[in-house]
Amino acid sequence: MKLECLVVLAFVLFASAVARKEIDPKGWIPIVKINDPALIEIAKFSVTAFNEWAGLTFKLQKLLKAEMQGQVVNGIYFRLIVAAGDDQSSSNNYQAIVWNLPWTENYMNLISFIPVHDAPPSYY
Q1: What are the residue ranges of helices labelled H in the chain?
Q2: Per-residue pLDDT tens for 46-61?
Q3: Domain definitions of the chain by residue range
Q4: What's the CATH number of domain 2-118, 3.10.180.10, 3.10.450.10, 3.90.1110.10, 3.90.550.10?
Q5: Where is the signal peptide (predicted)?
Q6: Could you give the CA distance from residue 76 to residue 12 in angstroms, rounded to a whole number?
Q7: Global pTM?
Q8: Among 38, 121, 43, 37, CA closest to 82
Q9: Furthest-apart CA pair in the chain: how many Å?
C-alpha cells in the first residue's frame, strides 16, 4: 500500500509539473502536501538511517518542507527539512536528501542529513 501511494504521489507531482511546463531537470519541485503518509515515511526513514549511522536516538518531530527531483525510471530524490531530536534535548532542523526507487520494494538510501545552518541558504 505504501509503495503504491509513493508511486502515485511521484506520478501526480511530475505530471502536474510537466503540464504546467515548469519542470527543470536540474531543479527541485516543491511538494505542497507534506502531510502525505508516504512522504512522512520517507522523513522517518531519513531520521532512522541517520540514527543507525551516527549511533543516535533521534525521533522525527515534524516534516517542515519537502521537494523532489528526478525521474521515476532513474529514482527520485527527496530533499526534506525535518525537525528531529532525542528525549534529552530540544529538536533541531535538518536537511535530509533521500534517494528512492519507487518501483522496488520501497528501496531508499539516505544521501545526506545535515543541520539546516550547514545547508545551502537558497533552500531554507
Answers
A1: 2-19, 37-54
A2: 999 999 999 999 999 9
A3: 2-118
A4: 3.10.450.10
A5: 1-19
A6: 13
A7: 0.74
A8: 43
A9: 47
